[in-house]
Amino acid sequence: MTMLRLIPLCLLALAACSNPEKVARYPIEPPAVKKSLPNRIGTAELREVSLPQYATAQEIAYQTPDGALRSNPDNLWADDPARSITLALARQISAISGATVLSDPWPLSDPPRRRIEVRIEQILPGADGALHVSGVYFVSPAGLNGGGDVVRRFDYSVPIATGEPSAIVAAQGAAVTELAKRIAALN
């Protein structure tokens, strides 16, 4: 009977040890861009971006000098990473090119002219101070008419200013903008 009375006290003590103010949530916020490319896409539906497993976790992953990927439960993404990157990428492609790119499912009554699919194979904050991004994107006609498919691989790095989570987040925003430029230019 005495043990049963101690359990609530132990739980209360454990709850007092955790400090929710220590947990930081970071949104993916690419830098503001201006229209700088012609609209080569028109209207396009962007499917949810595919990410490697370590990049889909709520905790922000980073690589340590021993090559391991680590994370800290006090540094979290503010939203689901795949959803966040998808929405930010659609917004950036639209802003850079003037195209109408919206995430799947397509919300407008007129169907899109194209579909975009992005498969990110690596989006790794490396121990070398750079965010390494690689993968492939596909742009295809949305209708039954074939042809006009675009398949492009990408592989680039974005510097990370410091080892702080906010610097990783800023680099990821810059990486999304770089990918948006590549997709908008179809190169």
UniProtKB/TrEMBL annotation:
It holds the Pfam family ABC_trans_aux. Residues 1-15 form the signal peptide. Keywords: Signal. It comes from the Bacteria. PROSITE patterns: PROKAR_LIPOPROTEIN. Residues 28-184 form the ABC-type transport auxiliary lipoprotein component domain. This is Membrane integrity-associated transporter subunit PqiC.
